[in-house]
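INPUT
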Amino acid sequence: MNKSHTPSTSNFIKQIIAADLASGKHVKIRTRFPPEPNGYLHLGHAKSILLNFGLAKEYGGACNLRFDDTNPEKEEQAYVDSIVESVKWLGADFGGKALYASDYFDFMYQCAEHLVTSGNAYVDSQSADEMKHNRGFFTKPGVDSLFRSRSSSENLSLLREMRDGKHADGAHVLRAKIDMRSPNINLRDPALYRIKKATHHRTGDKWCIYPMYTYAHPIEDAVEKITHSLCTLEFEDQRPFYDWLLNKLADGGLLQRPLPQQIEFARLNLTHVLLSKRLLIKLVEGGHVDGWDDPRMPTLAGARRRGYTADGLRRFAERIGVSKAHQMIDYSILEDCMREHLNEIAPRRMAVLDPIKLVIENYPEGQEELMDVPNHPQKPEWGKRQVPFSRELWIERDDYTDSPPKGYFRLAPGATVRLRYGYAVKCEGYHNGIVRCTYLAETRSGTPGADAVKVKGNIHWVSVKHAHAAQVHLYDRLFKIEHPESVEHLNPDSIKTVSAQLEPGLKDSKESHVQFERHGYFICDDGRVNRTVTLRDSWAKH
RNA sequence: UGGGGCGUCGCCAAGCUGGUCUAAGGCACCGGAUUUUGAUUCCGGCAUUCCUAGGUUCGAAUCCUAGCGCCCCAGCCA
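OUTPUT
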């Protein structure tokens, strides 16, 4: 249905899907995005969300939003809420209803009993330290637990006692019985269930044993009839267990084939930011930022407040692609995607961020004119607005200099520039902090005389009398170095608040994106004005 | 030094059932044109080379062998 859209380039996952569809293994695909509700979603998750939902859309399938809530000690409803909000904001269609791993706890437990009775799992009563010790090393095979040979009836009653709260945390753990000597450490009898007398944010105190991710995830996928289960590279070693488990359960009649297939891709790495929940939590709790949704945070909630758009993120995901090679993407790619999108949707406005006064000495005192200003020069259909012009204007401090460097074509003594959409003015001097000019009355924009005078420079302005003063937040990157590792690398100038002068009529917009001409893209939200990203500036290189 | 992955232009990334590859595309970069945003847009340039070394073949980024480099795995986290 979106065939008219630019066909995205091929990638290895699409090839697998296309082959599965062609062979008839699946008639319809289903993917899923499975966050753990233990933090806010960040830019890295956006890649995964856009990938999973994007594939579903492209192939006419579906994608589930499923919370992997198997560890009650770390998870909270507040995180669930923020995640749902971010996923919706990204435009992902998950059918309106989020799913939860905890909804399958009963079934997972049933599967556990089956594994026990079929001799594929046992209750181990070693301490965590003993288990660790007996697991061995990379080069040293593990050794069997003393409890590995318990009878299935003993295992079953122990498992039930665990479930019924008869044992303390850590007293026992249910383990898969595979091979303690496997070269793949993940196959050395991985833990399936642990005792955790904790209250779960959804199931309350119903359970005191909780499934491990390793065990729960494949079952979640199978129950939901996921066809392609996409995850990041670090789970590659887990895939043999994923398949082992599912096949055992399918053999036992608990699951139907075809079983889901786990496919791994490289996670997103971005320069100038940290994308690990652990470090992000540190920033929040250490008070280095104003919370998870601080506009400088690489969270989706933060990105949104910064003025980043879902569409910009989509372009970004498309641009970086998907593969198994580790990617390190320069942050400027993301910024560029935002510019690309914002350039299309943001109406243009004038704002002076660092104001100094300009007086047109030969412009009649008290006179005012309304200038016709296009809302978007490349989109005449967006119409024009009228902006008041008068004798005293605010202009940008940077647009005047006493000693112009070579190639400078803004205001300097004797120089002529155009006040964008107004008149051409000639600079007569600078006294008492005020730039003094004279204007050429016949050069009003939109009149034939406008083209008679050619100027290089073109600067924006706001009439002093009509200006709307506002605090504008100029955001820059949170970290000053390319590969930050800790709070020491925070950029001290990541936020600067300036007293700006905006053209009238800009104050009461809600989550609206605008371009301040010659500055960049900003988002106005309930009186708060944030800079999303600057415009490209090839002059700044000089 | 066990197991699993990855290695194509500065950054991504197609290609990988061998020839149409003197290697697509994007971003960056460098020109040049348009422009009342030093923005946007436009046009042109940008890997005889595919981690290295051998081999197979009439022919290899694509197959084989041996190296080298990087990442991941020893939670009752996900």
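end of record. The first helix of chain A runs from residue 12 to 23.
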